[in-house]
Every structure is written in C-alpha cells, then in structure tokens.
C-alpha cells in the first residue's frame, strides 16, 4: 500500500498547534507581524499572497500586504523594505517573487534584515543553513522536512536525489537533507542520464516545473517521492513534475499535487513567522 503524504491534513494539524502558540503570545502582548510586499499584478502571485494572508488571519497573525504598482522603482522598493526592517511590529518580511524587470531581485533580497527574512533567501540565511547553524529556512524545503517527519520518514543514511537546484527549493533542501544526515545528490538540466540517477534514490524530490516529467521507469520501487512541481498539463489541469498515476503504485509514499507540498509551504511560513515573534519576546 502506498502512503499518500497528505500535506493539507498535516498542515492543518500543525496550524491547530500553532494557533495555541499565537494565542499564548497574544496573552503576553505580542502579535506576530508578517509583511508581504507584492509588486505589480501577476495573477499567480496575487493568489499566493491571498492564500498566505488567509492562513495568517485564521491564526491571529497580523498580516500586512503592501501592494505596490508594477512601475515601482528598485529604490522605492528598497525604501519600503528598509521601513519594514525598522518596524518593531513586523517580525517577518516577504517580498513576493518574481519582480518586474526594472528591479534587481537579489538586491531586494539582500536588503531585508536577515533576522526578518522569513523566506530564508538572504545569503546570510543560506550560509547559516550550509554551515548547519540556526537560521530561517526557505518555506518549501522546510515544509518538505516537516511532512516527512510527520509521516515518520527518517532521511538519515538514505540516498536522496533532488532534481532542481533553484535557490527557493533544490539548494536549501539539499542543505536541510545533509544536516539531517542524508546522502544527497542534486540533479539539474545538465545532469547526464538523469533517470538512471533518479532510480537510485530512496527519497526522490522533484522540483523542475515540467508537467509529469518523471515516469515510473525513473523511480526505484519502494521509493518515497516528493513532487514539488505545480504545472499545467495539456488539458490545463494542475499536475506535478511526476507522472502520479504511474509512479504512485510503485512508490512506498508519494505527495499528491495539489494537496502535498503546497499547503506545507504556507504552513512553514506561518511557523517561522511565529518563531520570529517568539524571538522578539524572548530576545
Ligand atoms: P526554477 O525554474 O527556478 O528551477 C528549476 C530547476 O529545475 C532548475 O535547477 C533546472 O535546471 C531544473 N530543470 C528544469 N528542467 C529540467 C530537466 N528537464 N531535467 C533536470 N532538471 C531540470 O523552478 P522552481 O524551483 O522555482 O520551481 C520548480 C517547480 O516547483 C515549479 O513547478 C514551481 O511551480 C514549483 N514550486 C512549488 C512550490 C510549492 O509550494 N508547491 C514552491 C516553489 C516552487 P538548471 O538549473 O540547470 O536550469
């Protein structure tokens, strides 16, 4: 029997626990503050931001959205970020990507106070991760580790293959897996004989953005499969990077799309925002 790694159920359970933590903080006079900066009118970004806001509000987190016009200059955005860096009621700052072409996203990421960088994209937090020091970790990889933990899947000593090396998924996940004592391989578009490599994985994570790209023949029977992809297939249906229908029967556990990694990403953002608020309280 294949275990379906239910991200929605797991996230809901984590959020119920988090709500009691937020209530306890409120009792001590601290309301966690999350600032989300959205530039322009990208429809997908607008949906992500709305989902984050809904989750934050349901928990009692003070979520403030700064919606700036598409024409915003880099300096204007940097000024906004600096103001939020100085705002004591804001614990976490998130600038929704992608940004319009006139803005250098890396400059903006590096302008965020690393201790408020709730997305964990600042090089300081990436460095902390890769030196196995405490820091803020990108939400999607953090959520994947939480999901595996919730299902009692220990990564120590396992062969983990991660397909995709983006700064938001593949790279930080590799750091987390390494810190958790997995043996990690990162694959990407230049990897040769990709499917032979993925077939060696005890735990296969795919984050490439190509609909149903990974066939059953590329998966070791009994592997744990984590599908990060959120893609549209030819019928415009939301699917992952893995051919779920054919891989599910041979995997020991697999995430569905939707309902797998996605809900865990938002839950992780909330958990880390609350952790930052606790730091504000406790110093
Ligand atoms: P990026 O486009 O930033 O990175 C894609 C990575 O996949 C790159 O490293 C690229 O290699 C690699 N890649 C692309 N095609 C292939 C291929 N044919 N074979 C091997 N490697 C390949 O994507 P993201 O990391 O931002 O996102 C990946 C997917 O995850 C998307 O579908 C996105 O929507 C989804 N996503 C889902 C989230 C969630 O919460 N569920 C959160 C974030 C992303 P190279 O570096 O060589 O170009």
TrEMBL record:
Q: Detail which positions bind NADP(+).
A: 164-166
Which pathway does the UniProt entry assign to this protein? Answer: One-carbon metabolism; tetrahydrofolate interconversion
Q: Which SUPFAM superfamilies match?
A: Aminoacid dehydrogenase-like, N-terminal domain, NAD(P)-binding Rossmann-fold domains
GO CC list: cytosol
Domain Tetrahydrofolate dehydrogenase/cyclohydrolase NAD(P)-binding intervals: 139-280
* Residues annotated as transmembrane: none
- Give the UniProt record's GO annotations in the biological process aspect: L-histidine biosynthetic process; methionine biosynthetic process; purine nucleotide biosynthetic process; tetrahydrofolate interconversion
Using the record's annotation, list all stretches that form the Tetrahydrofolate dehydrogenase/cyclohydrolase catalytic domain: 5-119
Note the InterPro entries from the entry: Aminoacid_DH-like_N_sf, NAD(P)-bd_dom_sf, THF_DH/CycHdrlase, THF_DH/CycHdrlase_cat_dom, THF_DH/CycHdrlase_CS, THF_DH/CycHdrlase_NAD-bd_dom
Q: Which Pfam families match?
A: THF_DHG_CYH, THF_DHG_CYH_C
One GO term in the molecular function aspect is: methylenetetrahydrofolate dehydrogenase (NADP+) activity
- Superkingdom: Bacteria
The record's annotation in Gene3D superfamilies points to: Leucine Dehydrogenase, chain A, domain 1, NAD(P)-binding Rossmann-like Domain
SUBUNIT field: Homodimer.
This chain's function reads: Catalyzes the oxidation of 5,10-methylenetetrahydrofolate to 5,10-methenyltetrahydrofolate and then the hydrolysis of 5,10-methenyltetrahydrofolate to 10-formyltetrahydrofolate.
Please give the HAMAP family that the UniProt record associates with this protein: THF_DHG_CYH
Record's protein name: Bifunctional protein FolD
> What is the species listed in this Swiss-Prot or TrEMBL entry?
Lacticaseibacillus brantae DSM 23927
Q: Which gene encodes it?
A: folD
């Amino acid at each position: 029997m294949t275990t379906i790694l239910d991200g929605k159920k797991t996230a809901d359970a984590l959020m119920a626990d988090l709500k009691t933590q937020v209530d306890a903080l409120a009792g001590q006079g601290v309301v966690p503050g999350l600032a989300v900066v959205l530039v322009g009118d990208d429809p997908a970004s607008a949906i992500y931001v709305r989902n984050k806001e809904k989750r934050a509000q349901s928990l009692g987190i003070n979520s403030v959205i700064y919606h700036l016009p598409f024409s915003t200059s880099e300096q204007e955005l940097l000024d906004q970020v600096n103001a939020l860096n100085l705002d004591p009621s804001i614990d976490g700052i998130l600038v929704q990507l992608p940004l319009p072409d006139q803005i250098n996203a890396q400059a903006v990421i590096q302008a965020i106070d690393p201790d408020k960088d709730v997305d964990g994209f600042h090089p300081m937090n990436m460095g902390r991760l890769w030196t196995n020091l405490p820091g803020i970790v990108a939400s999607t990889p953090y959520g994947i580790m939480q999901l595996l933990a919730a299902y009692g899947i220990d990564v120590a000593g396992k062969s983990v293959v991660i397909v995709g090396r983006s700064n938001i998924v593949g790279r930080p996940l590799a750091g987390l897996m390494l810190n958790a004592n997995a043996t990690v391989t990162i694959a990407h578009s230049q990897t040769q004989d990709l499917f032979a490599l993925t077939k060696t994985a005890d735990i296969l994570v795919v984050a490439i953005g190509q609909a149903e790209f990974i066939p059953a023949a590329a998966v070791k029977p009994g592997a744990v499969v984590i599908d990060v992809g959120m893609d549209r297939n030819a019928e415009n249906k939301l699917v992952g990077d893995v051919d779920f229908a054919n891989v599910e029967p041979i995997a020991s556990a697999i995430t569905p799309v939707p309902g797998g990694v996605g809900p865990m990403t938002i839950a992780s953002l909330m958990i880390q925002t609350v952790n930052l608020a606790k730091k504000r309280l406790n110093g």
